[in-house]
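Many introductory courses stop at the sequence. We go one step further.
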Amino acid sequence: NFTITTGDVFKVALIIPSPAGTYGAASTNYSNITGNSDEVPNGSGYTTGGFAFTAAQNITPQTTGTTSFWQWSVNPSWTAATFNTAGCMIYNSSKSNKAVYVGSFGGTISVSAGTLTLTMPTNNSSTGLLRIG
């Protein structure tokens, strides 16, 4: 449920570099990451479970032609952070932690006593974070 204000709560959890597990289409739940101890550890600016998107940050799903697209209105960020990450899982914490997106950053991202921000793409049918067409 992506409805603004009354929709589900989603979270984005960060995955460590060189994880024990393999993450992709077969990754269906946040427990895939925690079961392999592949989430960035708690502390140093990161809280296990990840950044929580509130329902108020949902954007109403849209359609252009035969493609539907959707994402959030905020960029998740972690402040006073010191850690390394190589990917993330977005999951629906309102629905048994079911995964809705898993992705690699294409390499290791390191932050040291700074802020890590994941920038959402432009929300349209070509670049929106979640697209069905």
